[in-house]
Amino acid sequence: MSEKKVLVVLGATGTQGGAVLRYLVRHEPNTFTLRGITRNPASQASRDVQALGVDVVKADNDNLASLKAALSGATHMFANTDSNQHIFYAMKYPEVLGPGETPLTYARGIEMQQGRNIVEALAATESLERVVWSTLASPAKWSEGKYVNVTMFDTKEAIADLFWAEEKLKGKVSMVIVGFYLTNALKMPELQAPKKCQQPDGVFELALLSSGDVPYPHVDVDADLGSWVSALFQAEAGITLVGASEMLTWKEWLQLWAGRNGVQARYRQALIDESATGIMKAVQEEFQFVDEYGLAGGNPKVIHPADVAAEQRY
Ligand SMILES: NC(=O)c1ccc[n+]([C@@H]2O[C@H](COP(=O)([O-])OP(=O)(O)OC[C@H]3O[C@@H](n4cnc5c(N)ncnc54)[C@H](OP(=O)(O)O)[C@@H]3O)[C@@H](O)[C@H]2O)c1
User: Facing residues of 7 across strands?
Assistant: First the structure.
């Protein structure tokens, strides 16, 4: 009997990494020995991961040696990094900012170094066969400088470039561009949830920068991310896939939401707030970018759900 492969998941206690682990436990129990990385193995989230039968190990993206140790004997890895915590941290503790730094540039610096550490640790892992990096397209690059504030996306593509450039990872790398989480309306209601109007009709309104007519990739992370990662491990390396559970315009999304909740709702394209700065400016530009260029920015090398369906690749 062949030995099981060893899959190490970064962000094991988080939305993406946790979804990959739960999918594999449920649907492919015999493919991998599963190992999940956390900074805090004693947390309840870590214990929940452990209860799935996953080996939980302590490591930190800020600590290269810990990543190398966590990857010992790994054949596969799913990796992502979290931009948001650093942005919010710097907003809460502005004293961490250096001269001329903003929360966005501060977060970019930290995440970029974490990306370097992950790539270096993987390159040093002799047993490694395949890695899937959860990436995003750079608005600054694909809009040719029109949208320069979505630094969280820019950083993900800059790290992707490190993966592609690393000689020791040649032929081992694929990527997934995860679309908009369906849970955003619940977890970030101020940004993506319909609000009850103050006007007499009292219907709900969703106001976003999108025109409302452009299809966006929406993702049920828990249901689908694991199957995309598994498919990317099985297909040839070198693929970047846009992960979408369903392509929906925001108007279509809203009607589904309203039907499900038994309420009336209307969509309104929000006006650009020229005075917005920082994270609010970044969120505005995120929608403007996706409306104009698509989530993958028009990168011709990226595979979209429609391409996969047409070719019946998986
Ligand atoms: N919201 C969306 O629609 C959307 C769509 C596409 C992409 N994204 C991107 O998804 C990313 C966040 O992923 P997520 O939603 O899975 O995050 P999440 O649910 O907030 O979880 C973050 C995970 O990262 C781990 N982590 C954080 N800092 C770490 C460090 N220094 N070393 C090791 N592990 C660390 C945490 O583990 P411990 O705390 O246990 O250590 C946790 O498992 C963001 O960068 C965002 O841009 C979001």
Answer: 34, 76
From CA 40, how far away is CA 199, in angstroms rounded? 47
Contact (Cβ atoms closer than 8 angstroms) between residue 279 and residue 216: no
pTM: 0.96
Q: Which atom of ligand 1 is nearest to the CA of 181?
A: 3
46 within some domain? yes
Query: Residue 58 has what DSSP assignment?
Result: E
| Closest C-alpha among 16, 130, 27 to residue 83 | 16
Task: Please state the domain count of the chain.
Answer: 1
The set of residues, in sequence order, having a beta carbon less than 8 Å from that of 185 and lying 6+ positions away, is: 192, 193, 194, 257
Question: Does residue 119's CB lie within 6 angstroms of at least one atom of ligand 1?
Answer: no
Crossing angle of helices 103-123/84-92, nearest 10°?
140
DSSP state of 299: -
Range of the domain at 140: 5-179+220-245+294-311
In this prediction, residues 83-99 reach a mean pLDDT of: 96
Residue 245 Cβ inside 6 Å of ligand 1? The answer reads no
Average pLDDT score over residue span 210-224? 97
Query: What is the number of other CB atoms lying within 10 angstroms of the CB of residue 218?
Result: 19
